[in-house]
Amino acid sequence: MKIRGGRTVNQYLMGEQIEIINNEEKQHFEVELAGEFAYTEYRWYKGTLALMHTFVPEKARGKGISALLAKFALEYAHEKNLKIMVYCSSVAKYMKEHTGYEFLIDKRYHQ
Fold first, then answer.
1. Model confidence over 64-79: pLDDT tens digits?
2. pTM value?
3. Cα four-point dihedral sign 27, 10, 73, 32
């Protein structure tokens, strides 16, 4: 996954192209799905990216959207050379199932 300019990425979900963006104003990594938004909310804490919560509209659940958002957030942190704090259970689950992102964890806050 390449995050062009740190802003957007196109992904395919069940043959359909979707665009995930970094909405810096709302502090969301988000995707619009049929007029509704799925997102992973983040905050900044002393230069660390804190991944707080993921929301997927009920009609879009069970299609892998939360996994795509988690991957986007982790790849964003990696490409921007950021450390992360994970409070979101969806991101934590993704990291458990897809090893190789542990180096992003900010050890000052997660032991």
1. 999 999 999 999 999 9
2. 0.86
3. positive
Domain assignment of residue 52, yes or no: yes
- As a residue count, the chain comes to 111
Q: Are 59 and 30 in contact (CB under 8 A)?
A: no
Please give the residue range of the domain that contains residue 32.
8-104
17 occurs within a structural domain: yes
In a domain, 53, yes or no: yes
Token digits for 103? 């180096």
Mean pLDDT, the chain, integer? 87
Is pLDDT at 35 greater than 60 in this prediction? yes
The mean pLDDT of 30-58, rounded to a whole number, is 95
CATH (domain of 57): 3.40.630.30
- Overall domain count for the chain: 1
Helix count (H) and strand count (E) of the chain? 2, 6
